Amino acid sequence: MVKPVNRIITGAHYGLRDWLMQRITAVMMAVYTGSLIVLVAVYRPEGYEGFKSLFSIQWVKIASLLCFAGLCWHAWVGVRNVLMDYVHPMFIRLTLQVMCIVALLGYLIWFLDILWD
Amino acid sequence: MERIKLENLSSCWGYPPTDKFIWSDWLFMETQYPARRRPKYLNLFKIREPLPAIVSILHRISGVLLFFPGIPLFLYGLQMMLESPESFARLQSILIHPLSKLLLLFATWFFLHHLLTGIRHLGLDMHYGLQLQHARLSSKLVLIFGAILTVLAGIWLW
Questions:
Q1: pLDDT per residue over B86-118, tens digit each?
Q2: Domains of chain A
Q3: Residue whose C-alpha is closest to residue A27's, from A60, A74, A65
Q4: What residues of A are in contact with residue B84 (Cβ under 8 Å)?
């Protein structure tokens, strides 16, 4: 027998995926932030040249991009939860959700463009 | 305490409003807060939230603010920092303004609060600090450490 499906189009992704990823990305960002503070404290970048050369190191760029991608995923889950709590009409919620996804993807490309300029 | 479910009580009595009704809870509420004298506030400004609830809603508010305008402002700043020596100088001249320093301080507090309450939530997810006293204590600690770290960041900024 086929079980009836009561999923809604603007609902959560079912199961652990989003909940768990939000926490995993949170730990990722916390570790990255701590490491960056230590790096800046040790490296002591001075002025434009200092910061430019710090963010020209390949593994710093890769770690930063990973962290920012994690931030986008984390923010998406968070904003989606907020919209699910406060915005109930399906069409408005869907519109806002799509706007958030487009904005976050745009931010990700912007970040890529800044680091790999 | 044994909990007796009385089904369909609402239909014959009109109170309580649901038919999933726990008798001992109702008795407790009636003896502690008789229905006639019990204050009913639907006004959010009159409801005094417990500390863990305040810390929790601030986690959500700070999260939304970090998303917008947080992320675009951060990216704009990062772009100015790494684009050219001229844009770096322009960023410095913007950040030297007391108003932008104040905004940066608020942003720092939002960030730290979101980070610290996030760590607290991770603990709660792993069933640490679920007891009421522990939840209150961790809420206080989160606020105190958030304030201390923001002050330290402020000293470092100025």
A1: 999 999 999 999 999 999 999 999 999 999 999
A2: 17-115 (1.20.1300.10)
A3: A74
A4: 48
The answer to whether the CB atoms of A110 and B84 lie below 8 A apart is no
ipTM: 0.89
Residues of A in contact with B67 (CB under 8 A): 75, 78-79, 100
Right CATH number for B51-157 from 1.10.10.10, 1.20.1300.10, 3.90.1150.10, 1.25.40.10? 1.20.1300.10
pLDDT of residue B132: 87
Q: Please indicate if any CB of chain B lies within 8 Å of the CB of A27.
A: yes
CA B73 centroid distance within chain: 23
A44-59: per-residue pLDDT in tens? 898 999 999 999 999 9
Sign of the Cα torsion A84, A85, A88, A92 reads negative
Rounded Cα–Cα distance for residues A108 and B89 (Å): 25
With CB atoms and an 8 Å threshold, state whether B118 touches A75.
Answer: no
Select the residue of B60, B67, B88 nearest A48 (Cβ to Cβ). Answer: B88
User: Phi then psi for A8, rounded to 5 degrees?
Assistant: -110, 150
- Out of B64, B75, B122, name the one closest to residue A110 (CB): B75
Q: Where in chain B is CATH 1.20.1300.10?
A: 51-157
Chain B, residues 28-57, CB within 8 A of chain A, namely: none
Contacts of B114 (CB under 8 A, 6+ apart): B59, B62, B63, B66
